[in-house]
Q: What sequence folds into this?
């Protein structure tokens, strides 16, 4: 019996980022306005004369140890976690800068624990409290994610001093400032386009983009577009190699077009290959390397966990 | 902060740091190269500071943040961020005070200069320093004279491929440093050297300046504290040619004295054995015959008129003067059977065969009445500081005879002297020919004796060979200074070069002419050094013009 569907590989590695990706389901109640940039067809911007200085911002986070707060007969779940954010600046040479490490003790139920101090070798580490309002099971993890996103957002505007375009990982959040900041969405979890317009996407070639469309939703209106940065393999889905970008609508349509042309033309240069990155080609080289670098900066998880356990043990003995 | 005061890096924590070796992460804007001398201070819990000194013997650079080989292309394209990390491996040479703790990771490492460098290489404890070359950074490297003159050690052994390893050049440079550099001070008058020239004519121009010496070379000599001059006191000896007493030389015609032996000396000094100087396996019977014949000759010499170059052989009516060596050979062969009664007939015949064969090669050096004035043609090393004995035109057999005979005399003289002064250096190349590992011979025995007892006798052997693995082990092992020039890589793997270490062995395979690796007793790590171009000529056409002696027959 012939099948009425097609099965293709989603090239995202099987166990990568499982639940975390779900945490940021893209704006569910957005309204999309098409036709803001002429007829719906593939656009191919030319390469700029001088290679622009691009900054790629990303962050990594890690749970060191989960905990439970027992308080007045109730239990709140929490976790000790670390995050690191930084940027990869590509201006002829690629290098990492602006690394920031943060450590937090996230707790659900809106409860803020006291800061936890650790000593490892000659270094003092401090886990700051991060209270998350609700009591859902994923609340502590969201707390860690939020702390990371705040740090990323702070980093963005600083980079405008050394880069002409700053690429943030994921959709723009409420904290994103104005300026040439572009949100870069690697995983396309929801479709903003009706089926007729969505047909254009697999037909895009590398370096081409769709026209802009306006997304009206919280936290701010955005101009968005799809572009192809690389090809998938034969058995990958048709959308492999397609990414969605967005930038704030406040600076105006012309500025948004300029940024869209820049990203469409320049990003394919940084696309990764499957040999090196299981999330190729969407996980650009600078971002993949930046993630590795930041993960390294978080420190040895075993050392931290032991120090945390010792600290809690010390308290329990007191 | 000046360059010297800034640290060159810090002790690594990702590799083990031990009291005998550690790694250094090289700081940005700094570099470390092989053979650099560094020092690092590390604190003890009681507040004391331990200083470790060492020599860099490995430097490596790698990308941090790259996993695949092809990542390097991505980095250069500006797509992949990666940084370059350099690290150097240090072999510790000295720890002061001697508390053998590892340097803690993170401690600052500095280049050692001046007094600290002297401490690192143990130069500060040397009472009498002899410059033996320049290190890679242009600083002098010293050896302790006490390990060269027999006080605490003696003997030098040099290995390397002929033609590239510059063994003879280095041996002469050492002599130059010892004699012309004032290392012996007042007792220089009582120090001598005998240099055997077995190959080519390089050593026949030691007293003539080299015209190729330029300002750079002069600066190097000055750095070493040595005069850029040829040797000031040299005598040249060459074997007398057949049928006369004029020396048989090549390009060098002037200032050469000939040497030979009279038949009487041959008999009195028991030199017969050196005609059989090939190393054989356990030819004990032959040695017996030789011994018996020697005794008979010695007796004959004692009963012959003194002050004559000849001897009388035979009993009663048979007693006749032997006037030349051919005659001697005949007479000896005639009497051999009776003199060596207990030997088997076959052995005596072997003796006769070999004696005749040797006679053909060596005979012209042994004279009867045509020997000139008595005593004129003897080698007397006291007549000049350096005596060069030229052998390169002699057959191998004759070379062995001359070396054996001369060393034997030297040895006996020194044994009877009762003191180890005057000090005599003996420079001999091709030791694998004269004292090979297998077998035994009279010459080999003398050389082993010198190696083992030379210190107390005041004889220091500066020996050289292509392959130390083929030379008698006792000679190589007794050398206080072990020097290596360019080595064949297969040879370098042999246990005889264990002192080089793995890194030293690989480097020995790529040494340029003029570069040597030296191991001396006080310094725990072998040191790579360069020695300057010789200030003395090594060929006729290198002799500086104004020094060339006028040809008296010119213009005729």
A:
């Amino acid at each position: 019996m012939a099948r009425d569907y097609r099965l293709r590989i989603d090239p995202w590695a099987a166990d990568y980022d499982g639940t975390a990706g779900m945490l940021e389901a893209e704006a569910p109640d957005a309204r999309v306005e098409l036709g803001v940039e002429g007829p719906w067809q593939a656009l191919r911007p030319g390469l700029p004369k001088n290679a622009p200085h691009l900054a790629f911002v990303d962050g990594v986070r890690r749970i060191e140890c989960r905990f439970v707060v027992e308080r007045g007969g109730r239990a709140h779940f929490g976790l000790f976690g670390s995050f690191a954010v930084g940027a990869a600046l590509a201006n002829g040479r690629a290098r990492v800068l602006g690394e920031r490490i943060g450590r937090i003790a996230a707790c659900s139920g809106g409860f803020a624990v006291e800061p936890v101090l650790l000593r490892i070798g000659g270094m003092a580490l401090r886990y700051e409290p991060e209270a998350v309002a609700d009591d859902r099971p994923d609340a502590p993890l969201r707390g860690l994610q939020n702390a990371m996103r705040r740090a990323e957002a702070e980093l963005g505007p600083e980079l405008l001093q050394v880069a002409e375009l700053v690429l943030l990982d994921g959709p723009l959040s409420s904290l994103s400032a104005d300026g040439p900041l572009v949100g870069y969405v690697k995983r396309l979890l929801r479709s903003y386009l009706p089926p007729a317009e969505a047909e254009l996407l697999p037909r895009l070639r590398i370096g081409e983009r769709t026209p802009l469309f306006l997304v009206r939703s919280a936290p701010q209106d955005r101009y968005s577009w799809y572009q192809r940065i690389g090809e998938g393999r034969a058995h990958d889905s048709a959308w492999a190699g397609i990414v969605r970008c967005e930038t704030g609508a406040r600076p105006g349509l012309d500025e948004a077009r300029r940024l869209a042309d820049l990203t469409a033309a320049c990003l394919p240069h940084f696309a990764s290959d499957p040999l090196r990155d299981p999330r190729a080609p969407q996980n650009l080289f600078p971002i993949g390397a930046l993630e590795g670098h930041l993960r390294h900066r978080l420190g040895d998880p075993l050392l931290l966990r032991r120090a945390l356990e010792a600290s809690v043990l010390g308290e329990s003995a007191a | 902060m000046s360059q010297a005061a800034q640290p060159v890096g810090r002790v690594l924590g990702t590799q083990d740091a031990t009291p005998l070796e550690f790694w250094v992460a090289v700081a940005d804007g700094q570099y470390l190269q092989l053979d650099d001398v560094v020092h690092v201070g590390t604190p003890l819990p009681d507040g004391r500071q331990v200083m470790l000194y060492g020599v860099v013997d490995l430097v490596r650079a790698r990308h941090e943040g790259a996993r695949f080989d092809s990542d390097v292309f991505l980095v250069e394209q500006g797509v992949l961020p990666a940084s370059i990390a350099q690290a150097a491996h240090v072999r510790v040479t000295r720890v002061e005070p001697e508390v053998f703790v590892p340097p803690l990771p993170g401690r600052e490492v500095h280049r050692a200069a001046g007094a600290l460098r002297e401490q690192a290489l143990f130069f500060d404890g040397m009472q009498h320093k002899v410059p033996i070359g320049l290190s890679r950074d242009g600083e002098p490297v010293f050896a302790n004279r006490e390990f060269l003159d027999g006080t605490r050690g003696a003997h030098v052994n040099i290995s390397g491929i002929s033609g590239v390893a510059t063994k003879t050049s280095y041996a002469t440079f050492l002599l130059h440093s010892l004699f012309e550099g004032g290392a012996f001070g007042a007792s220089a008058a009582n120090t001598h050297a005998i240099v055997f020239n077995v190959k080519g004519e390089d050593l026949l121009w030691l007293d003539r300046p080299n015209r190729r010496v330029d300002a750079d070379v002069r600066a190097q000599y000055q750095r070493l504290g040595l005069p850029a001059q040829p040797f000031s006191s040299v005598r040249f000896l060459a074997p007398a040619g057949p049928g006369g007493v004029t020396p048989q030389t090549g390009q060098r015609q002037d200032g050469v004295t000939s040497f030979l032996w009279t038949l009487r000396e041959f008999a009195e000094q028991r030199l017969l054995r050196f005609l059989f100087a090939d190393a054989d396996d356990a030819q004990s019977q032959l040695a017996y015959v030789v011994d018996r014949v020697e005794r008979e000759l010695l007796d004959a010499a004692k009963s012959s008129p003194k002050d004559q170059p000849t001897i009388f052989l035979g009993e009663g009516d048979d007693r006749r003067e032997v006037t030349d060596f051919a005659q001697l050979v005949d007479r000896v062969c005639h009497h051999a059977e009776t003199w060596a009664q207990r030997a088997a007939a076959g052995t005596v015949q072997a003796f006769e065969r070999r004696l005749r064969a040797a006679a053909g090669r060596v005979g012209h050096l042994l004279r009867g009445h045509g020997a000139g004035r008595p005593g004129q043609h003897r080698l007397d090393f006291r007549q000049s500081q350096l005596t060069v004995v030229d052998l390169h035109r002699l057959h191998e057999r004759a070379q062995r005879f001359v070396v054996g005979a001369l060393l034997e005399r030297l040895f006996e003289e020194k044994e009877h002297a009762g003191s180890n002064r005057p000090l005599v250096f003996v420079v001999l190349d091709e030791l694998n020919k004269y004292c090979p590992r297998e077998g035994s011979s009279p010459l080999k025995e003398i050389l082993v004796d010198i190696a083992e007892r030379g210190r107390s006798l005041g004889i220091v052997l500066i020996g050289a060979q292509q392959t130390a693995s083929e030379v008698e082990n006792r000679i190589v092992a007794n050398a206080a200074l072990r020097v290596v020039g360019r080595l064949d890589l297969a040879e370098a793997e042999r246990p005889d070069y264990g002192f080089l270490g793995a890194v030293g062995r690989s480097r020995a395979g790529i040494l340029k002419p003029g570069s040597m690796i030296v191991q001396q007793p006080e310094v725990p790590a072998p040191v790579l050094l360069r020695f300057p171009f010789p200030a003395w000529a090594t060929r006729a056409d290198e002799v500086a013009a104004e020094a060339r002696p006028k040809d008296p027959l010119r213009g005729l």
About this structure: The mean pLDDT of chain B is 88. Residues 204 and 252 of chain B are 7 Å apart (CA to CA). Chain B has 14 helices and 22 strands.
